[in-house]
Design brief:
The chain has 148 residues and is mostly helical. It has 6 helices and 2 strands, in the order H-H-H-H-E-E-H-H. The protein has a two-stranded antiparallel ribbon with strand order 1-2. Strand 1 (86-90) and strand 2 (98-102) form a beta hairpin. It is globular and about 60 Å long.
Length: 148
Amino acid sequence: MPSRTKSRPRTVEAFLAIVRVSEELQREFVELFKDDRLSLTQYNVLRILRGAGPVGATCSDVANSLIRHDPDVTRLLDGLDRRGLVDRGRDSRDRRVVRTRITEAGEALLAKLDGPVQALHTRQLGHVSEKRLTELVALLEEARPGSS
């Protein structure tokens, strides 16, 4: 790890550390999902839809819940739909609204990944105490734009 240069402000150091760690952690998830031809964002969409239950979610609900912003949620949903992992249909109360739901195949894929994902989380961060993880989450939330 390069040493801190006197000309580099702490804000820059913090930013670079966050990005560096984020990239390293995400790289392992990319590898984990590779065999299932799933991106991190697609995995996130499936998790959002599983959490939405049988009611499903609108495209804007999904977009607002994504961890990583994606300007083309419709394209993401199209790809998952083509693979049979989600299905879409008109809302029964308002035919103008399209709701997306996770299918049994999507649920099965998430169920298959639940154990390996939890194991990876544990491998990546299990060495950090609960107290320090709580502090880390609080610090990251504080650093989040618009949190003050």
